[in-house]
Structure formats: structure tokens, C-alpha cells
Amino acid sequence: MLGVTLPASTKIRVWDSTAETRFIVLPMRPAATEGWEEERLATLVTRDCMIGTGLPRRPGGVAT
User: CA–CA distance from 46 to each of 8, 18, 27, 28, 64 (Å)?
Assistant: First the structure.
């Protein structure tokens, strides 16, 4: 969906927001970024991964 390919082992849960409940999306940490500072990690985050419709870029600049 929306051009995102996920591994078969990925579990997806969907909840709808209500007037009383809101959810936050936390993008997955790309491989090989352990120990990175927040500012450096932020360069990998796209709008799509923040709304749950895409994945962060890989350290080389390519979306995962």
C-alpha cells in the first residue's frame, strides 16, 4: 500500500483516532545507525514515516 514494501514478518495494527484518543507514530531506527545523535537521525526521517505511510531513509540516503 502506498508503495511501501514491508517484510512478511512485520505485524501491523490499525487503530482509528477518536475525539478522546490520539496516537503517535515512532519511525523504526534504520540499520547501522546505533549511537547516532538525534540531529543526525532526524536527517533520515521523512514526512511519510512520521504519519505512518513510509519508512525512514537508510544512512546512504535511500528510503528503506
Answer: 23, 25, 9, 12, 11
Q: In DSSP terms, which residues pair with 63 in a beta bridge?
A: 57
Quote the pLDDT of residue 61. Answer: 62
Q: Exposed e or buried b for every residue in 28-43, given b needs 16+ CB within 10 A?
A: eebeeeeeeeeeeeee
Q: Please report the DSSP string for 32-46 in residue order.
A: T-TT--HHHHHTT--
User: Is it the case that residue 62 has pLDDT exceeding 70?
Assistant: no
Nearest 5°: the CA angle 29, 52, 1 is 110
Q: Which three cell numbers stand for residue 56?
A: 525512514
* pTM score, whole prediction: 0.60
